[in-house]
Every structure is written in structure tokens, then in C-alpha cells.
Amino acid sequence: MTPICATIAGIVLQLFGGGYLVFQSWRTSRDLSRHPETVTFGELAPTIDTLTRELRRQFREQMIGFVFVVVGSGLQLYAVAAA
User: Fold this and answer.
1) Number of other residues whose CB lies within 10 A of the CB of residue 31
2) Cα torsion 37, 41, 47, 51: sign
3) Dihedral of the CA atoms 73, 75, 80, 83 (nearest 10)?
4) Confidence band for 70, pLDDT divided at 50, 70 and 90
5) What ranges do the domains of the chain cover?
6) What is the mean pLDDT of the chain?
7) 7 CB contacts (<8 Å, ≥6 apart)?
8) What is the rounded end-to-end Cα distance, in angstroms, of the chain?
9) How confident is the model at residue 22, as a pLDDT?
10) Over the stretch 27-69, which tens digit does the pLDDT of each residue have?
11) Measured in whole angstroms, how far is the alpha carbon of residue 3 from the centre of its chain?
């Protein structure tokens, strides 16, 4: 892989990873806004369970997005070293 191709691939992966993180953050925000702002005692356990699932999913999605950003950065560093 030539340094120019590695740089372009790294930038594309970083842009994809950043866009993916923004999209997933928006989706989580939308999903969390469906929950009531005030919770009664009887609704507390199901609400905490739902929030826990949402947060777990969001952390997993963030990890995927950051992997793309890290791989893209690694490809750019490879291109700089190879040039």
C-alpha cells in the first residue's frame, strides 16, 4: 500500500468513525428522550433497566466508532513513516 493510499484510507476511516459516533449519539439521545422525565416509585425499576440497556448499547457503539478512528490514525502514521 502506497503512503498516499494509506493516508486517504486513514482519513476515510476517521471520517466514518466520527460520523458513526455522532449518529449513534443522536440515536441514543432520541431513545432516551422517549422516557418520562419524572418517574414514580413504581416505574423506577423498569426505567433503570431500560437506561442500563441503552447505556450498554451506547458504550458498545462508541467502542466500534473509536476503533475506526484509531485504525485510521494508525494508517496515517504508517503513511508518514513510509514516506
Assistant:
1) 15
2) positive
3) -170
4) very high
5) 3-34+43-82
6) 86
7) 75, 76, 79
8) 11
9) 92
10) 888 887 877 777 777 777 787 888 888 888 888 889 999 999 9
11) 27
Pairwise CA distance, residues 22 & 34, whole Å: 19
* Angstrom distance (rounded) from CA 83 to CA 75: 12
24 burial type by CB count under 10 A (0-12 exposed, 13-18 middle, 19+ buried)? middle
pLDDT value at residue 2: 86
- Residue positions counted in the chain: 83
Number of Cα atoms under 13 Å in the Cβ half of residue 49: 5
Distance set, CA 64 to CA 3, 47, 75, 80 (Å): 25, 26, 17, 25
